[in-house]
From TrEMBL:
Residue ranges occupied by any Carboxymuconolactone decarboxylase-like domain in the UniProt entry: 12-93
Protein name (database record): Alkylhydroperoxidase AhpD family core domain-containing protein
Gene3D superfamilies in the cross-refs: AhpD-like
Keyword presence, Iron-sulfur: no
UniProt keyword annotations, A-Z: Oxidoreductase, Peroxidase
Matches recorded under Pfam families: CMD (PF02627)
GO molecular function, one term: peroxiredoxin activity
Amino acid sequence: MSERVIFHTANPEAVQAMLAISNYVANCSIEHSLAELVKIRASQINGCANCLHMHTADARKAGETEARIYLLSAWRESLLYTPRERAALAWTESLTLIAQSHAPDEDYQALQAAFTPKEQVDLTVLINVINSWNRLAVGFRTVHPSDRKGAALKVA
């Protein structure tokens, strides 16, 4: 795999716009620990190695356990996640896979039960932002930091 475009240098203005909305999300009503789980889950679905690297590291720094990170792709089968986290993860999957899911009423009802209207909007914006970053990174084949190091070692 080779990087197609280094998007942050190719169009800094567009990246600044993305960073502005990312800054809003970083300070919104959704708790940081939950935000990181959402970012990881969307990135798993989208196959974004770069974002997975970043957000699993961020989650660990924020105190997330290895078990919860490892089991995140199978959260429905685990008792390690709270009802609020489960509602957020279901909503994340619904919106990330919206062409297939069409954001079903069942997922929205779980969201309503666990989140205020403001939090529902904040969570939805958060999900949209991570999906946008995933699409930039995957679309332009952003090289994962470990891949970059590994490629440098092979050349040396």
